[in-house]
Amino acid sequence: MAHQFEVVVVGSGPAGYVAAIKAAQLGKKTAIVEKWVKEDGKTTWGGTCLNVGCIPSKALLESSEKYAQTLHEFDVHGISVKSPKMDVAKMLARKDGIVDQLTGGVAGLLKGNGVTSFEGKGSLKANKVVEVAKHDGTVETIQAENVILAMGSIPVEIPPTPTDGDIIVDSTGALEFSEVPKRLGVIGAGVIGLELGSVWARLGSDVVVLEAMDSFLAAADGAISKDVYKHFNKPGFEIRLGARVTGSTIKGKQVEVTFQDSEGEKTEIFDKLVVAVGRRPYTEGCLSDDSGVKLDERGFIFVDDQCRTTVPGVYAIGDVVRGPMLAHKGSEEGIMVAEIIAGHNAKMNYDAIPSVIYTHPEIAWVGKTEEQLKAEGVDYKAGAFPFAAIGRAMAANDTTGQVKILADAKTDRVLGMHIFGLGASEMIAQGVIALEFASSAEDLQLTCFAHPTLSEAVHEAALAVDNIAIHKVNRKKR
């Protein structure tokens, strides 16, 4: 006999577990299905983000940054440290401990909110039936009034460089190197490539990033991406644009990579190679032919603006649907869908989703870029302010980058905020709030920012929109 639930969520990543908790909070009898099993045979919750994505990568980024600061930056503060060494095994153990704590926390939150957990692979059948293939080979059936599909995504593989889990790895493998590679190749200069490349470069790897596109960080504002490229592309962390990988050959404990650039065919030898060319929605074996759920031309589950699929009562959220593959985007979609199921009117503002790259310095943006506004024919005004003129940044010995704000030339409404610098991941929330509340640049100009703070760069950039910045010489009015 099938189990009966009002809401069943397939997948327990940041989209799925948040949706399940919210639905339960709204009084719905809720279940969640998760297939991920750890090496010890136990189910783990939290999806890619908590297990092999956002959280473990940030743990390694923090550890490696502290090591790099000890090597190169403490001296300017008057701190002397003799021969610092990185214990890679201890660094990885710390990372694993954080993952265990957070995944265990998700399990506790689900239980504490009365969500029933099913362990196994969930697949949607006809008439909103979810079949759970358990790890012991048995099958359970759940009949749901509402189904939320949140299976997440997996790394994209490319034929020229098939992963072997040892020398050629995906983003998951790059979190598990037992020692620092002398020479590390990274295919893809996107978020994952830059972050994971940064980790091992700080620890001493000679990193070469091969990017097939001629442009760098095309999703970011042009002025910001130009600054980022200039800052990072240097000996020890070389970024080669227009370098299309055509093949790879493992030779002993190294890999020879062949690629084409504007000068012709070239080869490089690496100790490890990370394939970081993006992610794709995971739907394999999750949707039966008679489920009624349709995929779009790119393999994403087709949904409307409120995440409804082509089947009434079936929703899809997170990485399996259109939009940026970001944990916070999936979580907000989960809350929206739970609210809709509970009969509430809920919508999501897709124009105010922040993007962050956790390199050092960090890169963050929300809203429109200058290039997008030009292409759309929007009459806009722009203001920027460098961290080099911010006292708090000077005190931190970290003055790289700038804040840039774009506003409508007629209405003064803030259209976008772009930050490259220390603390960008935290400051970008100011831009998100400005977009959510349809703030004007003048609203930010009239806001009192604490001194000394990094956020004063946001204040000054807002002033610069109207050419009235205080702490830099403004361009002359025409």
From TrEMBL:
A GO biological-process term: 2-oxoglutarate metabolic process
Required co-factors: FAD
Transmembrane segments: none
Active site per UniProt: H451 (proton acceptor)
InterPro entries (alphabetical): Class-I_Pyr_Nuc-Dis_Oxidored, FAD/NAD-bd_sf, FAD/NAD-binding_dom, FAD/NAD-linked_Rdtase_dimer_sf, Lipoamide_DH, Pyr_nuc-diS_OxRdtase, Pyr_nucl-diS_OxRdtase_dimer, Pyr_OxRdtase_I_AS
Cofactor note: Binds 1 FAD per subunit.
Organism domain of life: Bacteria
Residues in Pyridine nucleotide-disulphide oxidoreductase dimerisation domain copies: 353-462
EC number: 1.8.1.4
Chemical reaction(s) catalysed: N(6)-[(R)-dihydrolipoyl]-L-lysyl-[protein] + NAD(+) = N(6)-[(R)-lipoyl]-L-lysyl-[protein] + NADH + H(+)
Keyword field contains Nucleotide-binding: yes
Similarity comment: Belongs to the class-I pyridine nucleotide-disulfide oxidoreductase family.
Miscellaneous: The active site is a redox-active disulfide bond.
Protein name: Dihydrolipoyl dehydrogenase
UniProt source species: Reinekea thalattae
